[in-house]
Structures
1.
Amino acid sequence: MLDKGLPHNLHIFVNSVEFIAKVIGLAKLSPEQVKVVCSMSGENRENNRRKLGKEYSIGQPSAPVKKINFYTSTCFEGCDLYDENGVTFIVSDGSKAQTLLDISTLFTQICGRLRDSKYKGEIVHVFSTTKYSREVTLDEFVAATKKTLQEAVEYADEINKLSDTVREKTLSKIKYINEQYVRIEDSRLIVDRNLANMDIVNFKICRHIYRTYINLTGELQRNGYAIMRHSFSEIIEKIENKSNARLTFKELFDEYHRLKTTQPFFSWDNHTELCAMIESRHPLVKRAYEQLGMAKVQALKYHVGNIRRELVKELPITNEYKIVKMVNDAFAKQTATPKSIAKEKLQRIYDTLGISRTAKASDLAN
């Protein structure tokens, strides 16, 4: 942004002054290039000044815009920013829970902060996934929490049914309540349902929404966001996370085409490197894309056998050599093939090459 003199100004929303200070240090940003808006109340003021360093001041939302502008949660709601060339970045660091935002609430609030930007229809969400265990699903956690809450309600009801004298005497002998979501108030047991709801929301945010790219984009789409262009790839994630994941040729080819033909406004990932991963996984993808093109592959219905034959058909060699290469691809080595199937495969080869000949088993012997 700075080296190339691009006209945009970055407005980066991330709820961590420590994170902001680290970015400033790594990018070697000068005080003239940076505006930081964060909490100025009580101890936060001194702590934030210490983290940022003496050279970097804490600004107000209304202060003049700079090339790089950082905002913590103090600006997430009810704060209007004006910058025609401003681009909104939301950063969610999987290792810092306070930066993970619920899509339906704070995330949506942030999206409306830049009022007059030419780019307000596009939000760049930079995130890393959380590292929590995947053994418990969201549905399982919700079910377990509701069960615990119901047990707490039943426990509190039983205690509260006691006479005032017995209940007060009983509770006075308990140093603390070892029961989730229950507290003592005015000699009665109170069940705090809000705590249970908070547990579910926190689990959903930290251990579900931000656990994988697929979960996050799904949550965005459920809340009305259109994922028009994204730098990461569901297909690449499957390749990276599970090398033996089952991926069809169509999935790989379509993703290869997307990476080749899209150029997002901002991307951490090198599309060339991502394409190389797909090429390594299935070398036929590159050959088909470069030699046949998208329309031809679609016309062949992504059928690998048809594509291989079409590629051979395009080679500058005689039909005899093309037949040999197609036969080599079509028949398994050291494996017996029934005569009827052999004739069918050979006939497809003849048809592909436009040879008016009826396939016979004896042709293979020749």
Note: The CA atoms of residues 159 and 167 lie 7 Å apart.
2.
Amino acid sequence: MAKRKSGALLTLIRIDRVGGAPLSRQIEEPLRSAILAGSLPGGTRLPSSRALAADLGVSRQTVVQVLESLAAEGFLEMRRGSGTFVAATIPQHLPQRLASPAGATAASAVSGLGRRFAATGIGYDPAESRPFLPNSPAYDRFPFALWQKYVTRQGRQAWRGAMSYGDPAGYAPLRRAIAEYLALHRSDACDPEQIVITAGGHAAFMIATLLLTDPGDGLLFEDPGPLVARKLFESLGRRLVHVPVDDEGMVLAEAEGSGARMAFVMPSRQHPMGRSMSLVRRLQLLDWANAGDAWILEDDYDSEFRYTGRPLPSIRSIDGGGRVIYVGTFSKALFPALRLGYLVLPPGLVGMFRNAMALMFRSAPLASQMALAGFIADGHFTSHLRRMRELYAERRQAFLDVAGRCGGSFRVEIPDSGMNAIAWLADGRDDREAARRAAGAGVHGYALADYCARPYPRQGLLLGFTGVAPHQLAPGLEALARVLSRGA
């Protein structure tokens, strides 16, 4: 019986011993994809690790490592004395599953899942299934089954508080979990009472801007800078002072005499350029805020994904004057539809922000807060981040390797942190036109010009690499090279 089941799994797993990925990954990805696609339904018993190792021609230790990893993510259940089974709690909110054809690889199974996300639009922006779209996490590697356990657990809570609006500042256990995470992994200790949970990062930007500035007030904004945030501040009636950025971050000298009351900055990983703000510039910004009784709205964007050394400390962690409002989210570390972010506030602002939250939003969705609190407290958030950093580092290097073989129609730059690369175009090429033509070839990048308030001296395309499946990488970059070459 075990032999028959093991033989069925062999149609899903293809081992490439010459230049392939690590053996554990070649086994793990097809199994995960088959579970997501429904080819291995909940409750299916897998063959023993010994039998599977023998049939695949790999060590039993390698197979055990794979099974334990999938069990940690919630895809498998390892029952002592009974064997290993596909988890019975695979989320019911996944889009309708289609069985993978015999012999389907991990890549094709994930590709099919992505197409179903795009077709149904259930819980996801269809755009997020487009290859090379910037800022897209690897959705296929999120531990859906494990997350569902926490969603189900909080749904069973019998106490009335789980059905009410909740504390306007947010669910207390979640605030404690975030404070512990920041202290351990961002070297930024704070009291949980300084934290206010919001419905995502843009809700945090909006409430901070409304409370701390008035219509017509100047707001320092990096140029190039994030388009949606720029539109948000403009819609609130703030006067944007566009400040250029260089390799060290915002060039504050360019903002002299602006009279701005707030600065919006992304010091850990500036978007779209990907640079990190130097310590000298951070201290200059703090001096500017203290001297002018101004505020710094710090968006700690993508701080989790740094590939050389530890994540950089936040500006808030060196703020001695209480001028920094820190914003963090879970959109890229987990998934955007979660819609949870948070503010870390100077103590003197906490009461004002709590009252404003009660009036404007009541509270962020309590059920999601409860599930996330348990997910973080039990160590799954940090484990997931560690796995994603390793995966994204591999995809980053693969992106560089393939791009280097694609000729001279573009030159790729990938910073040492973040989720995106910049493909710099040859002089004279219009990046908006290049983005339109690339999309027609299946490469969905953004023109750098879209992020600029003033003309930028170079033309480029912003391309995401973290959400690109391995089978999409070479065909996509080769297609980009072809369309750019035709436009030379």
Note: The chain has a mean pLDDT of 83.
